[in-house]
Design a protein that fits this description.
globular, alpha/beta, single chain, Rossmann fold, 243 residues
């Protein structure tokens, strides 16, 4: 059976069994909208080359800045700025932003303490950080952490083609419930929300057999409410109000 045929079978399983499971991006969008106001200045931390979050929230905020290590591949919308830079050394003044948003970035941070210290610095008191990131204890994260990056890179290219989403080295140094809470507490950020999200077996889309095994894992973890083994964390942190 060809790869395309196997993918179609996996897509059919996805449609049949996950039609009622909201995608993690929907959960992230809901959380951002709950915390976003029209007068907010927003930082999209790790905006990516295609600027999805920046484009989505630019019309809803006062101003949005995106920053990433890669240059944008699409035109930036109005009311925005896009910079290349290091999240551990943000080129912004203290208390520049009301809200920081990020998707699938924290797992790639080699020094999350430095990055979140910068988030704290550039947030105004009462400002919030909203992000999603994979759970370090999820099976795909464990596999990704255990194999060389070059192997993962070849696998992703072979299965998902040249335009692979999120194909960067991973470290998972702030990707468990305890690690996130400990990091936030050490930097003066309070945890407003730390929720586990389900996800279909995305990395098994090349094999109906493995996809079904991934579905079984998902069903058991969800049925027994083992949040520590779910796919993704949705996190909202707040900079502590200052006197």
């Amino acid at each position: 059976m060809s790869l395309s045929s196997r993918r179609r079978k996996c897509e059919a399983l996805h449609r049949k069994y996950y039609w009622d499971v909201s995608p993690r991006d929907t959960h992230l969008d809901d959380a951002i909208l709950e915390n976003l106001k029209p007068d907010h200045r927003v930082l999209d931390a790790g905006c990516g080359d295609d600027l999805p979050l920046l484009t989505r929230y630019a019309p809803l905020a006062s101003f949005v800045v995106g920053i990433d290590v890669v240059p944008p591949s699409v035109p930036k919308p109005g009311n925005t700025e896009v910079l290349r830079g290091d999240l551990a050394h943000l080129p912004f003044a203290d208390q520049s932003f009301d809200l920081i948003v990020s998707r699938s970035v924290v797992e790639h941070l080699e020094a999350p303490e430095a990055v979140f210290a910068e988030f704290h610095r550039v947030l105004r008191p009462g400002g919030r950080v909203v992000f999603t990131t994979p759970n370090r204890l999820y099976y795909s994260s464990l596999i990704a952490a255990a194999i060389p990056y070059a192997w993962k890179h070849r696998f992703m290219r072979a299965v998902f083609g040249e335009h692979v989403y999120d194909d960067f080295p991973v470290f998972y140094r702030a990707n468990t419930r305890k690690a996130i809470a400990r990091l936030a507490r050490s930097l003066g950020l309070s945890v407003v929300r730390l929720s586990a999200l389900r996800h279909f077996p995305f990395y098994f889309m090349f094999s109906p057999m493995l996809f079904r095994l991934g579905m079984l894992y998902d069903w058991l973890v969800t049925r027994w409410s083992i949040d520590s083994l779910q796919s993704t964390w949705l996190v909202v942190l707040e900079r502590t109000q200052e006197a």
